[in-house]
Amino acid sequence: MNRQALNDLLALGEGFTTEFKKAGTSGLGREICAFANATGGVILIGVTDAGEVVGVADHNKLKSDVQATARSAEPPIAVEVESAGEVLCVTVPAQHSKPYSFGGKFYLREGASSQQMSRQEIREFFYREGLIHFDETPCERFSLEEDLTDEAWNTFRRRARIPADMPPLTALKNLHLLTGDGRMTHAGAWLLARDIQTFSISADVACALFMGTDKVHILDRRGFHGDVYSMIDEVMAWLLSKLNIAYIIKHVKREERPELPEEALREAVVNALVHRDYRSTANVHVYVFKDRVEVVSPGGLPAGMSEADLGIKSIPRNPLLFGMLHRMEAVEHIGSGIRRIRRLCTEYGVAEPEIEISPHWFVLRFPRPGMTEATGQEKPGPDAADVGDQVGTQWESSRHQVGTKSALSRHQVGTKSALSRHQVAILVKCKEDQGITELMAVAGRSDRTKFRNQVLIPLLEEGLLEMTIPDKPRSSKQRYRLTERGRRCLDEHAPEQNDKDA
After folding, report:
1. Selection from 220, 203, 199 nearest residue 211 by Cα
2. What pLDDT, on a 0 to 100 scale, did the predictor assign at position 390?
3. What backbone torsions phi and psi does residue 304 show, to the nearest 5 degrees?
């Protein structure tokens, strides 16, 4: 280390990666151990806490003592020792055999000081570094007598392709789902659960459909809390029901094509459940917005993974659960999740998902295909547009989404042919401001919630109606009125209505 580099360190003062030590090796093992358990650092011997250089004598002997101290750690820590004038510089590189202890104790760098870790901190450190996998630990809440029912076992056995004549405990032990002392692991509990929250309160999946592009107005909300395998199927069924579907008609055969690739969405849901941090108090979220679908998983990236590694290597946070889901064929390709999702989206003709990573969250964000301004019709991908013997392509939206297929449910909004007579009547009524009660009477509806979700919200989302008090959607003084777009839509339907009346 040259003089300028030393001066730079002195100018910055003590911190997370720098420690000043006036003399000797007393307490040095603690400092080296703390840096080794963090991201590494530099110890300057011969500098006071105030940053004043006092220097040390006999550098050769001191270098030998420093190396001996570092080697006495468990496991031994590799350090670099060099002189910079009167100061001895001890560099602790980032280590790869964490955790390290010194004198039978574990230390960690906290700010500008080194602290001995408590039992809970040691436990947390082991989890964070991937040295202990939570899915392999015993689940104290699972009772083999009460929770391992015949129904749960037979379902699991079929999924995991276990011979029918093999005793349950033998199979579970061979699959490492039972610990050495015969207790069920968390992975086993999650796969055999009737209600996963019985064993891990936040292991469920929360799904929500929102109006527009923010979380202000919720159209639908569902929670799923069965076993992990069942939740994958249930979440996918819910998710697909909220997306637009293209019907590609080939002679008498009709093929369904969701607006986003089903396999890519499924891979995202599986990844969220298998790689999440089950010690977190947060759960997995699946959000559907007008312009995107988000799959949010608590826990960030597992230890040893960086954003640059995504699509290149895989380090499962829950390897036992991951291995079992692969055996159950819920995970098709080991270590190819993100790469496969990107490839599937590209082949499907839609944009690749955006990835957002923080220390505590991992978000996959799928942009929904754009809508044409004139009709709200979703732009079909290349597979839907280029079909050799295709007779036609029709699009249908989910219950709460806007589509264009003429066979939409009677209260959904889409192109001219999709408006029902009740919807047209509501638009006519709203040439003057109207309350929800008056509009329900026009449609012959008595259930306010269903009317709002099935009739009003689609009309509002399509831009045919607007609220008189948009900042307070549920206000008792709320009224609804026709927009300019709604007026144009009525003009288009006028000839059709005359034909029906004739």
Report:
1. 220
2. 36
3. 90, 0
Q: Which of 259, 212, 288 is nearest to 378 (CA)?
A: 259
Residues in the chain: 502
CA 139/CA 13 separation, integer angstroms: 47
Write down the pLDDT at residue 440: 87
Mean pLDDT calculated for residue range 445-467: 83
Q: How far apart, in Å, are the Cα atoms of 334 and each of 115, 230, 233, 274, 366?
A: 40, 20, 19, 12, 22
User: Both tokens of residue 465?
Assistant: 């109606």
* 3 state SS for 73-142: CECCCCCEEEEECCEEEEEECCCCCCCCEECCEEEEEECCEEEECCHHHHHHHHHHCCCCCHHHCECCCC
Nearest CA to 299 out of 217, 363, 371 is that of: 363
Give the contacts of 215 (CB within 8 A, at least 6 positions apart).
Answer: 208, 287
Q: How far is CA 273 from CA 72, 157, 205, 376, 392, in A?
A: 42, 21, 9, 34, 38
Pick the more confident residue, 211 or 249: 211
Q: How far is CA 30 from CA 43, 50, 70, 74, 289, in A?
A: 11, 20, 10, 12, 51
* 292-298 sheet: strands from edge to edge: 218-224, 205-210, 284-288, 292-298, 361-367, 354-357
Sheet holding 87-92, edge to edge: 18-21, 41-45, 87-92, 80-84
Q: What is the spatial distance between Cα 447 and Cα 121, in angstroms, rounded to a whole number?
A: 54
- Mapping DSSP to helix (H, G, I), strand (E, B) and coil, where does residue 481 land? strand
Three-state DSSP at 289 gives coil
- Quick one: which of 153, 184, 149 has its CA closest to 168? 153
Residue 394, helix vs strand vs coil: strand
Q: Do the beta carbons of residue 196 and residue 206 sit within 8 Å?
A: no
Residue type, 172: L
Beta-carbon contacts of 329 under 8 Å, excluding residues fewer than 6 positions away, are: none
Query: Which string of b and e fits 193-221 if b means at least 16 CB within 10 Å?
Result: beebeebbebbbbbbbbbbeeeeeeebbe
Distance in angstroms (rounded) separating the CA atoms of residues 466 and 414: 17
> Quick one: pLDDT at residue 400?
45
The C-alpha R_g of the chain, in whole angstroms, comes to 31
> Cis before residue 99, ω within 30 degrees of 0?
yes
